[in-house]
Amino acid sequence: MSCQPTHDPMGAAISDFHRHGQAGRLRVFSPDFDEDEIPVETLFRSFDEMPPLEQQALRMASGVVLDVGAGAGCHTLALQDMGHDVTAIDISPLSVQTMQERGVQNALLQDFWDVAPSFDTILMLMNGIGIVGTVDALPRFFRHIDMILAPGGQLLLDSSDLSYLFEDEDGNVEIPSSDVYYGQLTYQMQYKRVKGSPFPWLYIDFPLLARIAGENGFDCQLVAEGQHYDYLARLIR
In this predicted model, what pLDDT tens digit does every residue of 18-75 receive, in sequence order? Predict the structure, then answer.
């Protein structure tokens, strides 16, 4: 499954920035929050410009690497510079085309769920696990990881705990009662006149991730915590 170019706002923004050195607003809509936007230039950052959690993840990568949802290819290019054998995948045609033009040696238009084995390191940065969409889909996710991860391999991912959104002035967190996990959101992107379809996206707190990983045969290790309620995790069988 892949996005068509006419419904590829992320790719359109990435392509514009690559070709012209600037881009318009990549707008993000959600029924849960006010309109936001993604600064397109951050998708082209160098290793030195990356947050510490991302730098640490790249340093931990080993063997044959899969970069999931690679976007403009900033992580892939950094890994190539380190001498890694890395494959970048994305469902955005224009993003894949841009990666190829930027020198990514193996950039594929491919859905994560269609990936075949095997990789020593699977990298899911910029909250890459968000593609799972919902907590209920995590068992399927771990079954797929088990299929494509080489023996002794690792999954490196970062995510954020959105419970801070429910913190009051005294620092107390009271999450509204709901049947839906508070980290499950719905997003829709627009770049100029290019508007994508709504899609589910998952932010997951570390204790919940670790519990579900354990139930599905994976050990989940907290590698580091960031300054914005984010964290880097390493998962192994």
Answer: 999 999 999 999 998 999 999 999 999 999 999 999 999 999 999 999 999 999 999 9
pLDDT in tens, 83-107: 999 999 999 999 999 999 999 999 9
Model pTM score:
0.95
Token pair in block for residue 191? 């770049």
Q: Is the N-terminal amide bond of 159 cis, ω within 30° of 0?
A: no
CB 137 within 8 A of CB 200: no
